[in-house]
Amino acid sequence: GPILPAYANNLNVNESGVGLIVGLPSVVKALLSLPACYLVAWFGCGQALVIGLLVDGAGTGASGLMWEFKGLVLSRLVVGVGATLDGIASPIYVMDLASRLQHNQGSFFGWYRFVMVLGNVFGPYVGGWLAHRSKLRLPFLMAS
Description:
Blueprint: H1 3-10, H2 15-43, H3 45-63, H4 69-99, H5 105-133, H6 138-143
């Protein structure tokens, strides 16, 4: 989110380092997406979703506890691993739920997207508000 660059700057990370930590989870997702499909199949969708969310949350919380660039890089790698698992498992889970609603699938997906977009709209605002009212670390800890 928008707090991450400010947090990295607070740790005296230069601009290229900020770019690295912002983009690192996406690099991890690109590298691990295909192998993660097998893990999701092996664990099952629900269990992989929970594991992914827990790992993502642990990485996010750890990001807020880091005091140096190397630790922040490591925590962002963990975020990428968790986001890979839950990013694959969650649409499968949602499609499974929608398949049970034979006549209301459009409405179900509409509400699903609506809630996801609300999170994308208000999440950064709430994180910014928390950071402004307290410390830059708090949004990471609350999001975990």
